[in-house]
Amino acid sequence: MSPIQAPPISLLDKYTGDSVFPLYTARVALTGGDARHGRASGIAKSDDGALCVDLRLPKELGGTGGTNPEQLLAAGFAACFHGALNLIASKSKISIRESSIQVSVTFGRDPADGLFLLRVDTEVSLPGVDHSIAHESIKETERVCPYSKMLRKGCENTVWLT
């Protein structure tokens, strides 16, 4: 078994097509579980079998606690941001071996419409990296990371009934 390798820096090469060029598509199906409610007792399964997660409503929302959608979003965002940051650092020949990303996703009430919203806060730790270099690397990462772009600009979303 070969060791796990980081993706190539060539992923940072610009794409010049005139439509989205898919590189990978994740597919996850969710059922409602015992409570027939995705947040309270959902079961999320990927089509390749690599992911199977029981979802539970956080205790703060009256549930039993356990893995919830906000944690999954935080994990996905942190992983993508960390990966993009490492690509940027590698391209710039900056060592960030001890880097870490902490993402907080807050589920709350939206004062604009009284319904719900998500807020995302990201904390980046780059020990040993000059502050100005770290700041520029983070700014570039925000441009490159698709999760960061999605949160900043929104993303295409299609919903249909089958």
Whole-number tally of structural domains? 2
CATH class of the largest domain: Alpha Beta
Content of β-strand: 15-25%
CATH topology of the largest domain: the name is GMP Synthetase, Chain A, domain 3
The assigned CATH architecture of the largest domain is 2-Layer Sandwich
Straight-line N-to-C gap: 41 Å
Largest sheet: 3 strands, antiparallel
CATH superfamily caption of the largest domain:
K homology (KH) domain
Unreliable residue stretches: none
Q: Give the mean pLDDT.
A: 97
- Strand order across the largest sheet: 1-2-3
What structural category characterises the helix and strand content?
A: alpha+beta
Task: Output the number of helix runs.
Answer: 4
String of helices and strands: EHEEHEEHH
Quaternary assembly: single chain
Shape: globular
Radius of gyration from CA coordinates: 18 Å
Helical content stands at 25-40%
- Please report the total strand number as a whole number: 5
